[in-house]
């Protein structure tokens, strides 16, 4: 039984680590705020609880396991709520999601100095 728990623990740790790394790459590579928030929410909602589950299986039944379970439940309860609140605030502020179907659309530039920077049209000179 110990070997089964060890294997299950490592499966949780590796898959959670993979999700956390892929979420971090998504934060760097995705084109706009909404896609980046989605990458962060995947990391928080799936990656962190999987890593915590793997650690729980490694620690066995103790007070530490209960603490890790409480942290996992807190993350599962708050991460989707925070993501929803951020996206709703961005939509309320007037940001729109990037749509790849529109051939002329570009992703919004990152916010610098409090707002997006307007790029000049080279054909207007």
Number of domains: 1
**Termini gap:** 74 Å
Give the beta-strand count: 0
The share of residues in helices is 55-70%
The main β sheet shows up as:
none
Characterize the structure shown.
- This protein is mainly α and 125 residues long.
- The protein has one domain (2-96).
- It is 69% helix and 0% strand.
- The chain contains 3 helices and no strands.
- Helix 1 (2-29) packs antiparallel against helix 2.
- The chain is elongated.
Key attributes of the depicted protein:
125 residues, mainly alpha, 69% helix
Which helices and strands appear, and what pairs or packs with what?
Blueprint: H1 2-29, H2 33-59, H3 63-93
Helix pairs in contact: 1-2, 2-3
Quick overview of this protein structure:
The chain is mainly alpha-helical. The chain has helices spanning 2-29, 33-59, 63-93.
């Amino acid at each position: 039984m110990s070997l089964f728990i060890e294997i299950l623990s490592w499966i949780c740790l590796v898959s959670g680590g993979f999700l956390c790394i892929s979420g971090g790459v998504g934060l760097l590579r995705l084109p706009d705020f909404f896609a980046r928030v989605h990458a962060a929410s995947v990391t928080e909602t799936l990656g962190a609880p999987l890593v915590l589950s793997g650690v729980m299986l490694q620690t066995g039944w103790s007070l530490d396991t209960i603490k890790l379970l409480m942290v996992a439940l807190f993350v599962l309860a708050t991460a989707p709520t925070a993501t929803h609140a951020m996206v709703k605030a961005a939509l309320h502020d007037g940001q729109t999601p990037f749509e790849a179907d529109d051939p002329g659309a570009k992703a919004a530039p990152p916010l610098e100095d409090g707002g997006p920077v307007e790029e000049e049209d080279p054909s207007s000179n």
